[in-house]
Input
Amino acid sequence: MSVLKYLLSGFALFALIGTSNAQQKNRFNAPIGVFDSGTGGLTVLEALLTLDAFNNKTGQPGADGKPDFQSESFQYLADQANMPYGNYAAENKTKLLQEHVIKNMDFLLKGQYDLDGTHSTSPKQGVKMLVLACNTATAYALNEVKDFSASQQVAAPVVGVINAGVKAALAYQATHQKGTIGVFATAGTVASDGYPKTIRAMAEQLKMATPSIVSQGGFGLADAIDRDYSFFAEAAKEYRNDYKGPSVKNSNYKIDTSLLSIYNFNKADNKLLCEYDDKGKCLDIQLNDPENYVRYHLVSLLEKMKKEQYASPMNTLILGCTHYPFMRDTIRRVLNELYQLKFNDQYLYRTVLAEHVELIDPAVETAKEAYVELRKLSLMNPSAGQKNNFYITVPNKNLSDVKLQEDGWFTYEYKYGRSEGAQKKYVNFVPFDHKNISTATYDRIKVALPNVYQQIILSNK
Output
């Protein structure tokens, strides 16, 4: 969908303007819904909690020393049971993906959450805005979400992350020497062509020259960050038969053994697993750490640019998955390593890699867009915000055909073997707790997203 069509598609705007004053007043204190396939969207929530880009009295651009959403409350939903979303396109299940997204929107707009294990539910408040903090969901289901919201008795405006990230990337290009814009996203988001289409459409709208663009599907990276067993098993000490990530034997995401010194994988603490023959020779390699996924995909991206002879080095990289900002420091460090890398006294990647690469995190731009929409529709909460709530999907173990792996989540085959329209309750919606989110993930959130972490702690009291 082009930028112009997006701006003109006033589903939520016109539906909301048409509601009664009483309905509007009842929605002032409703929370804002933030959705992602996993915990990556918490980076967007952190931006929402900390944004100070506007004057709270006038709504005009300019910081006033006060958080812009200080009076708002939030509901966060992670569809952990059905993630990673990036693999649905490769499995030809985009309709199933859209079905998952709409079910999640229904939960946020109304819904009840499940009291896990008790077969009972508890009501919750519906949200007044939907923030799709998931690039893949935005790429494949933004229009469907807008239509679904418009069909409700009181529609909610919908904000997605792709437009926000593109705006920031083009703003950087407009003030710096032109270079290639890299899109580093899930395989599903890359397959949708959502970012390149939006980049070209928005550049045309802004009367900018069509930028050079390169995309890299980070197959397995978001999964590893969220500790999906098919891609990262923290306790694994040897080669696994149920591993699904890049490997020497994976024809679609092949680890090139001639590039091993360039990947420079971290081999400590079983972060790289090998299948050995009886003579101790490594026959296959499996990645078992998010950093190694970053190394594999950044090298793959630059090798692609060299092979396709890109004329402009990459100077902008959109982190097109909300999980990827968790790895920002690693991405920056690996890019610097690759810029300095020499082979036969020649720099290996400087023809395709700028010395400084601007890392674009769409989260802040998404938060700004949400604020503008909220004020435009007169939906700001005039009083103090309520407690924030955090929900996650878990497998519905009462389904007779459900297939679970040893960690209690859906098997890969079951997850992507389902078909849309089955009208089954595949998941339960439950609050965050230490049973459904690992200690390592909580520790990562505590360090990277301190404001979100504090709100999660408060939500459990």
